[in-house]
Amino acid sequence: MGKKKKNNNSNNATNIENNTKVENATSKEIFVFGQTIKHDNGTILHSVTLELLNAAQELSKHYDKKLKVSSVLCSTENIDNFDEIKKTLYQKGADKVYIIKNEKIKNHIGIAKAISELCENKKPEIFLIGATTLGRTIAPLISSKLDTGLTADCTKLEITNFKDEKKLVASRPTFGGQLMASILCKKTPQMATVRPSVLKKTDEIYKNDGEFEEFYPNFEDFNDPITILNREKNNNKFSSSLENAQIIVAGGKGLKTEENFEKLKRFANLMGAAYAGSRGAVDMGLIDKEYQIGQTGKTVAPRVYIAFGISGAIHHIVGINNAKKIIAVNNDEHAPIFENADVAIVEDATRVLDELIEELEDRMPEK
Fold this sequence. Notes:
The chain has helices spanning 2-26, 47-60, 82-91, 108-122, 133-146, 237-241, 258-271, 279-283, 314-320, 349-363; strands at residues 29-33, 36-39, 42-45, 68-73, 96-100, 126-130, 150-154, 156-162, 165-174, 179-183, 190-194, 211-215, 247-251, 274-277, 304-308, 325-330, 343-346. The chain is an alpha/beta fold. The strands form four sheets. A seven-stranded parallel sheet has the order 7-11-6-1-4-5-12, with helices on both faces. A five-stranded parallel sheet has the order 14-13-15-16-17. Strands 8-9-10 form a three-stranded antiparallel sheet.
């Protein structure tokens, strides 16, 4: 009888193990880091979070069983309008929302530690993080802790079959922007950071409610190695509004001088547009790096993008791929940017800029 009882217990243990495996197999998740920003009117979600939620829903459909899309909230500050934030996450693509809570979370080290513990507990299949300053800081810390790979600054996400497994294909520019590399991660979670404004948000409402879970990480033995001495806000409004600008005028090496970049700025003011520059212009010292668009700068998605004297190497095109309309002015008829432009003007960029400014100023009402 003792032997039989032992076999029954063994069978029960096997059943429990099998049930656990089935449960885990049916509850696989895609994590999306829900980055929040303190705004004048309260806490808001960073736009890249909404872009990633929409992308995660599309990725989840390509698995044999649809993955659950879960947004992970973890902040150093209290989210005062949490119910509103949570509802927005559901509406934009979250099936579940995790909120990580611990008073010892004071900076990016604490955020990375807490999220790593959640990942160890829930074992997501994929983890997407916005390539913001915070995202770029915590993503490598998390991937190192979880002993997994990380593809940084991605511009495209897909699912493919690889050795009878579904795998995330994360694509990004490489070799100075001359090639696109498609990268697969050997382990899970398959991690990637994605640049803001590269992917599209959905205008549709996914749902108004969903699953919710509070997670309390263990910080008993945690000694924060960083002390914040001071915080300074960047009040550069041109820079901070670039990613959301509807019209952008940008200059490249073809403008040649600081004087011509002052003209670009004046033209932008007359147009009610934001102004920016290429990496070449930044390297020449014609414009500050905060205004740079491209692979090593900002990614934008304006309704209209006007490029003056920009050749259009691939590392710049990566930054403007989602522009609705591209107008390019360059005196080189073979400039690569013309291949991506909706309107191509073969002319000296400075001359065109002068004529446009004159035309707009003539239309201005006299004071």
